[in-house]
Structure prediction request, 725 residues.
Amino acid sequence: MSKITSQDGVEPIIDERFLISDLCDLISQYMNQDQVKEVYRAYLFGAQAHEGQLRISGEPYIYHPIAVARILAQMHMDVKSIIASILHDVLEDTPATRKLIAKEFGEDVAHLVDGVSKLTHIKFKNKIEQQAENIQKVLLAMAKDIRVIMIKLADRLHNMRTLGALNPDKRRRIAQETLDIYIPIANRLGIYTIRHELENLVFKAIHPLRYLVLENAVNKAGGHRKELIDKINQALGSRLVDMSIDAQVASRKKHLFSVYNKMRDKRLPFSKILDVYALRVLVDSVDDCYRVLGIVHNLFKPIPGRFKDYIAIPKSNGYQSLHTALYGPHGIPMEVQIRTQEMDKFAERGIAAHWLYKSPDEKGEVAAHARARDWLTGILEMQQSAGDSLEFLENVKVDLFHDEVYVYTPDGDILKLPRNSTPVDFAYAVHTDIGNRCVAAKLDHSFAPLNTPLYSGQTVEIVTSPGSRPNAAWLNYVVTAKARSNIRNYLKHMQADEAMSQGRRLLERCLKPLGVRLDDVRKEDLETALKEYGFDDLSELLEDVGLGNRPPSLVVRRLVPTRVSDGESEETKEMKSQSALAISGTEGMVVAYGRCCHPIPGDQIVAKLSKGRGIVVHRETCKNLEASSKRAGSDKYIDVQWADDAIGDFSCEIKLEIENKSGLLARTATVISDCNVDIENVEMEDRDGFSMNLLYLIKVADRKHLAMLMRRLRRIASVMSIHRM
Prediction:
């Protein structure tokens, strides 16, 4: 077994040519002989299956599975994980089947191997979709058995160690995928040893020159800074002995990727990065952690605002430790981490540090496992509400990349949320129904907008209403994947319902001149039309028509072909004679209003079918519409009129030419507000120094409401003219 120097020059990495005998020696330290024999039998099975296959580097392929198994063995993973890691590429690269693996090694091993295997037998549109599907499969398999992701992380780690055999483009692509997905997952599960090595390997693959320069700088600076750390180490060690606290004090070196990120994010040269080396103190109990903290702060002056208590409030991945920053000798800042031996094991290995697969009669679950299960439950919820694998992957990325804030429920419970979360994120974190019915929020007992960012220590109370529903605008500021996926899912179903209702109205309107109702259409004609359009049932056809993807007049020709006796001209005549569709203003997302002309109740209007949006209402005189003669024979346009009971607030734009005097903007805005008109936007344009234009985008109920407002504005002496845009 040979060794090579690690990527950061500190820890040795075992060469990938790791023999099965070495693996058996390693696992025999914590497994019995029967389990070791089972692992060796899996090796024989895998070696035979991969016989004749070579890696790109030219070595036998079986070296890779053995190296992956070794990574897991170092974390003392169970025998089934080790066997599955040896066989993890068998389904993908050999004729062996899942059924055969289950027969030879059991259903659990077969499930693990299948969960890690890529989707090789499905054709994808592009690499992005393929990546999304593969990651979705791994994450969903992980939700059933978390050992799947442990094997996948070990597999990715060894592949990253051996990237040198690939061309530069492929190296960068694999490194970027690792940075986007696998490093955040390793962090989320608290497996810092794998995370840190992956980060350094990614850094080296994406920025090889920067990596070499920074590595040399760290090595050169190591001597002087390590002397300072050693002095502090001695002073602290002596004080701990005096206080009769049994502790281990050691220095640690910040890994290169972390140093690089700090330099980049804070725009600092390497000479200004002063925490490349730090102290770590390991004690036996939580009580000793806080005692050591007091001793450290007594020895050296703490830096305000740099203390973090991850013992009282652990990170979402279960990490626990006390972090503090101090002014050391010569005023140089340094970092100190204080934790128990058990916390340190978890900090290095994450969930694998407490690997327990309990038998049915055992109760309880390690806290780290419980947190991981909660996260994985959220992954399953996201998958159920996501539209496709790409949306699912986007949601997972949102969930993985975050810092945290800690807020309180009205009952005093602590809730962890990503940084920049809003009350809407909080509402969905409490319960999906709370989020869906959210109408307002109180922060520390005072009402606040729903888009207000939350800060640690706030008490958040959500006000709900039974008739409320999610707002599409929430998607502009929510940050949690759960909130985003639930809002999208609700709006998607709401749009489908509204589109079906609108599609039915459009078809009924076209059928009315023919003396037919939609429910009276013959079954055979309906089935023929559905088959021709590729739909399974009428609801899909109605939704398609409501979304504007298919003109209703053309659909009617398929639904009632026998009612049109004189061909195209007679049908066209009938279509022209039908009554206009009534627009009430409450149709929802499948009826939109043109931003080019801002129609309001009372205007002469016409509607245009727009794919995916339904119908878009314009003013009759809108310049963006075709000439009336061209519209008459087009299936893209629909005659519409305002319903007598049209309600709502409709956008409208007005232009005021005013004298250039101070206070006029405030005066006009006051008049607008007094008329119960909301202002959406206002712009000012200078004209000649003596006058200026005010452009107001406002919301009014109808033309009468607008006329009343314009009369009130004309009464202002300095308003020279006013007109609607």
Residues 3-206 form a domain with the Hypothetical protein af1432 fold (CATH 1.10.3210.10). The CA atoms of residues 686 and 692 lie 5 Å apart.
